[in-house]
Amino acid sequence: MNAPYPPPPPPPPPAGRNRTTLWGVLGIVLGLICCGVLGIVFGYLSIRDAKRYGQSPVLGYLAIAFGVLNIIGSTILRASGRYPFWNNRY
Questions:
Q1: Could you count the other beta carbons within 10 Å of the beta carbon of residue 71?
Q2: pTM given for the model
Q3: How far apart are CA 79 and CA 90, in angstroms?
Q4: Spatial separation of the C-alpha atoms in residues 60 and 45, rounded to whole Å
Q5: Is the dihedral of CA 58, 60, 62, 65 positive or negative?
Q6: Residue 83, pLDDT score
Q7: Which pLDDT tens digit goes with each residue over 45-76?
Q8: Is the Cα dihedral 21, 25, 28, 34 positive or negative?
Q9: How do residues 13-32 score in pLDDT, each as one tens digit?
Q10: 2 or 89, which is more confident?
């Protein structure tokens, strides 16, 4: 008796469209520096591409975490009246 052939390996993902690292780094930088919402959006895009291309989604999770921390921190600063640092109205 002959054994059946093993299935062929899966095709490689298409080249040129993998932007997992780009979205993750943009999300971390924007989430830390200026816009928490953009950090969350780019983090989601990074996680989506990481799952699609079989990569690690750590950068996306970090971007989302930094975006959320930015939003929480700026909310606390606004509530305490210290948000616009350049006005010197303490």
A1: 16
A2: 0.74
A3: 13
A4: 7
A5: negative
A6: 66
A7: 999 999 988 899 999 999 999 999 999 998 99
A8: negative
A9: 666 677 899 999 999 999 99
A10: 2
- The encoded tokens of residue 45 equal 């895009």
**Amino acid of residue 40:** I
Residues 76 and 33: their CA atoms lie apart, in Å, by: 16
Q: Using an 8 Å Cβ cutoff, are 31 and 25 in contact? A: no
Are the C-beta atoms of 61 and 45 separated by less than 8 Å? no
> What distances in angstroms separate CA 78 from CA 21, 23, 62, 64, one per listed residue?
32, 28, 24, 21
d(CA 24, CA 21): 5
Amino acid identity of 79?
A
Distance of CA 16 to the CA centre of its chain: 19
